[in-house]
Design brief:
Blueprint lengths: L4 H26 L8 E2 L1 H8 L3 H13 L4 E2 L5 E2 L5 H22 L5 H20 L2 H17 L4 H24 L8 H11 L2 H20 L1
Antiparallel strand pairs: 1-3, 2-3
Helix pairs in contact: 1-3, 1-7, 2-3, 4-7, 4-9, 5-6, 5-8, 6-7, 8-9
Length: 219
């Protein structure tokens, strides 16, 4: 059977719709825009995105496979609501993987990257001062991500982002409960280690930043 141009165009349009809703939901979950345990419906998402149910269904399945959403036997789809044991497990993964990514990135760090990280750290501090939970989580993750991209280790980064996806809603919810207007100081230590080319210091700063930050989730 010969595929018609109209069929190919429809397939491309469907894939584009799937990618668009997948990226949108993925970002919302990672940054904590959706509360832990929030139920999602195909019809609700499709109506809000003004698209058909099919690409939404595929996007939800893809996110569930990444651990960004939970899918119950009854078919209920929701954002993760994590207990202490699961948080501890994910925190251990971050403590193992992220110092390694930072170490791999260090030989490729340049002045423009450090300046970008300093700008993100400033934005992170400003978000904390405004009590902007969404801005705080977003700039915090982007601070780490721009460094880890320099590692040129896509498999490592993919696993780390999967962990961030699972933690996102809980991180945002906990931050909103805390009465804090100052971010932790460890970003400054990370930047200082990068400037000095201090690989052991960089590993320690990243590990400390990750583990101390996640302790709040278990307290």
């Amino acid at each position: 059977m010969v595929e018609r141009p109209a069929d190919r165009a429809a397939a491309r349009e469907g894939q584009a719709a799937h990618d668009r809703i997948y990226r949108t939901l993925r970002q919302q979950i990672m940054h904590g825009e959706l509360a832990p345990g929030r139920a999602l419906t195909l019809r609700g998402i499709a109506a809000e995105a003004q698209m058909s149910i099919t690409p939404v269904r595929e996007a939800l399945r893809r996110l569930a496979a990444e651990g960004a959403l939970t899918l119950s036997p009854s078919g209920r789809v929701a954002t993760p609501a994590l207990g202490p044991e699961r948080i501890e497990e994910l925190a251990a993964l971050r403590a193992l993987l992220e110092p390694e990514l930072a170490s791999r990135a260090l030989p490729r760090v340049h002045l423009a990257l450090i300046e970008r990280m300093e700008a993100l750290n400033l934005a992170n501090r400003e978000a904390a001062a405004r009590r902007d939970g969404l801005g705080y989580v977003r700039t915090n993750l982007e601070f780490h991500r721009v460094l880890y991209l320099r590692a040129q280790s896509p498999a490592f980064l993919a696993v780390v982002e999967t962990v961030w996806l699972q933690l996102g809603p809980t991180m945002r919810a906990v931050y909103d409960r805390l009465d804090r207007r100052e971010p932790p100081p460890h970003h400054r230590h990370i930047i200082a280690a990068l400037k000095a080319g201090d690989e052991p210091g960089l590993r320690l700063a990243v590990r400390t930043d990750v583990t101390l930050g996640l302790r709040h989730l278990m307290s």
